[in-house]
Structures are given as C-alpha cells and as structure tokens.
Amino acid sequence: MTTFVDRVELHVAAGNGGHGCASVHREKFKPLGGPDGGNGGRGGDVILVVDQSVTTLLDYHHSPHRKATNGKPGEGGNRSGKDGQDLVLPVPDGTVVLDRNGEVLADLVGHGTRYVAAQGGRGGLGNAALASARRKAPGFALLGEPGDLQDIVLELKTVADVALVGYPSAGKSSLISVLSAAKPKIADYPFTTLVPNLGVVTAGSTVYTIADVPGLIPGASQGKGLGLEFLRHVERCSVLVHVLDTATLESQRDPLSDLDVIEEELRQYGGLDDRPRVVVLNKTDIPDGKDLADMVRPDLEARGYRVFEVSAVAHQGLKELSYALAEIVAQARAAKPKEEATRIVIRPKAVDDSGFTVTREEDGLYRVRGEKPERWVRQTDFNNDEAVGYLADRLNRLGVEEELMKAGARAGDGVAIGSEDNAVVFDWEPTMMAGAEMLGRRGEDHRLEAPRPAAQRRKDRQAERDEAEREYDEFDPF
Ligand SMILES: Nc1nc2c(ncn2[C@@H]2O[C@H](COP(=O)(O)OP(=O)(O)OP(=O)(O)O)[C@@H](O)[C@H]2O)c(=O)[nH]1
Ligand SMILES: [Mg+2]
Predict the structure, then answer these.
(1) Does 352 fall in a domain?
(2) Is 171 in the pocket of ligand 1 (CB under 6 A)?
(3) One domain for residues 34 and 134
C-alpha cells in the first residue's frame, strides 16, 4: 500500500547573514590606506513553491528539517561575502501553510505560487560601508543577523471542482474512471479507496477536475470507518455529488436514508452547506436498481435535487451528467472573484517597523521593543567597544534615549532591548541630556579641539546633525 501523507510538520531554518568585515587597507609605503572591510552576504530564504508535478507531502514527512545556506562573511579588499542560496521546497497545488497554533499563514493554489516560509538574515555591513566623514576608520563591523526559524504545518487540500461523496462501494471510483482518464482502484469490498482520487473531465469547452474521497459511513464524524479526515479534500470544490447505490444488498439501506446519513456527516464536518448538490443514482444497469431509482426519484426532486440515473459499468447517463456538472462548475467559476486563484494570507506584522516602545516593568527594568532597535542589537559585536558605541549613537538618533528619559529612567537603571526571552540588558548611561547636544561622539575627543567662537560652534553642531541624519538614512538601507 502506498503511504498517503496529507499533513506534515516542517521545521525550516533560513540562512544566517554573514558578518561584516573590519579591515584596513595595507600597501607598502601607504601605511593608512583606509577601511576596506566588505559586507557580509544575505542568508538564503526558505521558499515554498507550488509545483504541479508534486502530488504528495511525503518527502517532508521523511525529512522534516530543512535549512537554507548562510551568507558568507565579508573580506578585506572591499570584497562582499556571497549571499546564501535560497532553499526552494516544491509543494503540491492546494497546500495550506499553518503555524503551530493552527492559524493559516498561506493558501497556495496555482502552479508557481510562492511563499517565503523563513526569511534569511541580513548580512552585516563591513567597516568600509560604516566609514563616514566623522568616523574615518571604524575599527568594527556589524554582525550578520540570524536567519528565521519557523515551525510550520503543511496540509494538503485537493483542488477539485467536483467532489463525489457516498457510502463505500457506491461506485465513486468507478464513476471517476469512466468520466476521466484516471484509473483508480475499484473493487467490491468497502474502503477500496484509501486516499482521494483525482480525474480531469472534458465536457464541451469546459475542463474540470473531479475527486472522490474514501467512503463515509454513519458515525464517520466520530471516527467510524476512515472518519471525516478526508473531507478536507472536498472543502475547495464547487459542487458536491452524492453517489447513491441503487443495488445495495444491505437490507436496512436505501438511497433516501443513505443520503440522509451522508448529509448528517457533512453537517457534522461543517463548512460545506453553501455548496450546490447533485444526486447520482448509480448501478441502474441492474433491473432492481433501475426500479428503485425510478421509485425514489420523485422524492429526491421534491427535496430540490437534480437527479441523474447512471451506470458506471454500462456507461449509461454519463454524458448528460458530465455536461450538467460542467455547467455548474462554469457558473461557480464565473461567480468567484478573480484573486481567488492564488490566495495568500499575509500575516500582519506585530510591530510597526519605524517605531519603538519604552515600558517600565514591575521590577524597575525599562524595556525597549521595536524592529530597528532589536535588529541593531543583533548586529552588534558586544566585545568591541567601538561597535557598542556605534549602537548607542544609533539608538540615540532614533530617540530611544529621549524616550527613556521621559519614561523616568536615570543613569544606572537597567534597560532591556528585546523580548522577554531574547533581550540584551545593560545599565543605562545617558550620552545625551534633555534638550542638549550630544556630549561626545565616537572616534573623536572634543577636549582635543581648539576653542571655537560660539557662532562657529553652533554652525558646526548643525552640520554634524545634518551629517548624522544623512548617515542614519544611509546606514539603514533595509
Ligand atoms: N453493476 C454495477 N456495478 C457497479 C457500478 N459502479 C460500480 N460498481 C461496482 O461496485 C463496486 C464498488 O465500486 P467502487 O467504484 O470501488 O466503489 P467506491 O464508491 O469507490 O467504494 P470505496 O472506495 O470503497 O468507497 C465494484 O465492484 C464495482 O464494479 C455500476 O454502475 N453497476
Ligand atoms: Mg473508491
């Protein structure tokens, strides 16, 4: 028996960004050639792509851990590190991506539809890129950021226009085999079909797909038989077809009560009420079956169903059925909004990436949250004082210090940047006073400067602020 896997847990890891390089150009007779450390490369993304030649999630069941490659570190001589390679994971059409809590992240329909499941880390800037007029030779570089780690669940939902439902042995697979070129297994014992079969039907100018699911029995919603699990495959269909057996030998069954049972199970499953339904009375090649079909037809029609009498074995009534289904499918397609073809749910971003928040916690700790400050912390090599100073400047310019001050923080108070389980905590040393200029800047010592007249000092300060502003924009290309 082939294994059918329609739900897998997948652990994906994007590549880490390469570290930036801190290097100084050296050449004979030119002792101070300037910084020439290159940038680190970007880590590879993990990307899911719909590939119509893939039909199962089996590969991921066997190897559920996947990782894209890391970016390479930058090197001296202004050489950038190579970007990591994206890892492209082919998935079947109709794959739904969920997070661990069952929330839908993306619904991948249509060949080529892509979803970035884990984003690669950005490479760190090298010291060449960090050099500026006032920081001529930075002795540090930025670290590459770690790539995303995600635990996701993939679920397969067959993308079929028409779904056949019914008791075991009603002839669902037989119908698919005569309406399309598909050759599913057919046998005279219940639960022959263990996984959905899919066929393509051409009726006039309409081409549509038809799928069956394993047979349903009373109590399927409580897990009887193969249960209702497979009904997820009919969730996307536009038409439900009840295949009713007119020649069953089980004494307590007949087409009308069979229909009631299946409808009750569909109701238990939920979400299918709005789908149009059609009734097929199968096995009318058998004389008793034909009689029973004629007997129940008025009742079914009185309930509002369109009824088709067919024989899958004797190839009777098939053309009429397939054209009627084509018509309903065409109507459903016309009514569907265009963008339905590729549905991707983009997860809303938790934090607005331009801002940050400062909160005072019960134990007196000040917590800073925000995309930029947290990213800058990840980029900082805390063993390098200059790098730490650069971080302080960046935070300062974003206004973090000012907000800390407003929130009541004083020198020596604990400040955490990041979430509760992933934060850098330090004792705060303000470099800026409320309403005053910056006291000192990295790579300079203001005590060494010659005294300047007040007007000149004001001009210089303005020029520095302008430069800082420019630098800030320049250094945040992300
Ligand atoms: N006489 C007659 N027999 C049929 C007809 N359609 C199907 N059968 C027989 O009914 C039995 C079951 O057919 P399947 O197509 O496997 O039924 P199914 O609904 O797919 O059954 P499960 O996969 O078990 O749910 C087989 O022995 C078929 O040959 C028909 O129109 N006439
Ligand atoms: Mg079958």
Answers:
(1) no
(2) yes
(3) yes
CATH of the domain at 60: 2.70.210.12
Residue 450 lies in a domain: yes
* Pocket residue to mutate for ligand 1, from 1, 186, 283, most atoms within 8 A of Cβ: 186
Q: What is the pLDDT of residue 353?
A: 62
Residue 29 Ramachandran class (φ > 0 left, ψ -120 to 50 alpha, else beta):
left
Q: Is 392 annotated as a binding residue?
A: no
Q: For residue 217, what are the contacts with CB-CB under 8 A and spacing of at least 6?
A: 167, 168, 190, 224, 225, 261
Grouped pLDDT means (10 residues each) for the chain, 478 residues: 69 97 80 86 96 84 94 95 97 90 88 93 94 85 95 87 93 94 86 83 90 86 77 86 93 93 92 93 95 95 96 96 95 73 52 77 91 92 90 89 89 89 83 42 46 66 59 44
Beta-carbon neighbour count of residue 408 at 10 Å?
11
278 and 374 part of one domain: no
> Contact, 470 vs 135, CB < 8 A?
no
**pLDDT value of position 199:** 86
193 and 293 in a single domain? The answer is yes
Residue 412: per-residue pLDDT: 86
pLDDT (0 to 100) of residue 344: 57
State the residue range of the domain holding 111.
Answer: 1-156
Q: Is position 475 within any domain? A: no
Q: Is the CB of 89 under 6 A from ligand 1?
A: no
Pocket test for ligand 1, best of 174, 213, 286 (most atoms within 8 A of CB): 174
Distance CA 60, CA 58 (A): 5
- Reading the block at residue 350, the tokens are 């938790």
Q: Would you say residue 249 lies in a domain?
A: yes
- Which DSSP helix (H) or strand (E) runs through 108? strand 104-108
